[in-house]
Amino acid sequence: MIIKEYLTKGKSSQEHNEDGLFIGNGIIAVIDGVTSKTSNLYHGFKSGKIAKDILMKSLNYINKEKTCEETLQFLNNQLKQYHHLIGKDNEWFGAQIIIYNDYYKEIWNFGDCSCMINGVIHKHDKLYDNITSNARALYNNILLKCGYTVEQLQSNDWGAKYIEPLLKSQYLYDNNTNSIYGYPVLNGKVIPFQYVKKYSIKNGDEIILASDGYPIIKRTLKMSEQYLQNILKKDPLCIQEFISVKGLKNGNNSYDDRTYIRFKV
């Protein structure tokens, strides 16, 4: 594997970055810790940051010959061991992950990270996120028509408050295969392997793995960053040009943590 470029950057700081990038043992992985729906802290950090840190450490113990199912189950078990720190059924240490395994020449996706294979993008959006982000966008757009300013909504995101009950109930659908609202997440619960997306790779392929901190991944990091910055300049609330469950808060550099890696097999 030839690593060409990469970046992992927290929306507010590197210390609180809930994204992670792992390179080693014939594996490349992008991790996106699930944003906490509460204000609870664990050793000073949100649950998404803790989940990311657990998985980053656990990946060091993954043998590249482990299958996709074995790898995900091992990582999931590591997260499960820490659930006692929370002790609540509606909050677990959780993360989305996308992995390239060089031994099997496969990409394994479990969650809403995305990848590009030889210029072809593969996105893995969640219906639940589409609904909540559009509800937030509609609410904030109505407020703009009623006289609120973008700056006011950046300081006090009423649309985000409007969808808060939906976000707090989202856990009811994690790893649920019996509903159209179900979605995959590593969080210590039973893994529905039918949610795993696999992509076969061959020598010479150029691969990009990225978290959902990029609205759209481009062929280079520079192009991806430029596209992101253009979006944030035109639509800092992320309710028109790009619709998200959260926007650019005052003092932050983006609407979400972000990770990008481009490499050639």
Describe this structure as you would to a colleague.
- The protein has 265 residues and is α+β, with helices and mostly antiparallel strands.
- The chain has a single domain (2-264), classed as PPM-type phosphatase domain (Phosphatase 2c, domain 1).
- The chain is 28% helix and 21% strand.
- The chain is built from 7 helices and 10 strands.
- The protein has helices at residues 47-58, 68-80, 127-145, 150-155, 158-162, 164-168, 221-234; strands spanning 2-9, 19-24, 27-33, 95-101, 106-110, 114-117, 120-122, 197-200, 206-210, 258-264.
- Strands 1-10-9-6-7 form a 5-stranded antiparallel β-sheet, with no helix packed on it.
- Helix 1 (47-58) crosses helix 2 (68-80).
- The longest helix has 19 residues, at 127-145.
- The termini are close together.
- The mean pLDDT is 92.
Number of strands: 10
User: Could you list the spans in which at least 5 consecutive residues all have pLDDT below 50?
Assistant: none
The proportion of residues in beta strands is: 15-25%
What gap, in angstroms, lies between the N and C termini?
5 Å
Mean pLDDT equals 92
Give the helix/strand layout.
Elements (H helix, E strand, L loop, with lengths): L1 E8 L9 E6 L2 E7 L13 H12 L9 H13 L14 E7 L4 E5 L3 E4 L2 E3 L4 H19 L4 H6 L2 H5 L1 H5 L28 E4 L5 E5 L10 H14 L23 E7 L1
Antiparallel strand pairs: 1-10, 2-3, 3-4, 4-5, 5-8, 6-7, 6-9, 9-10
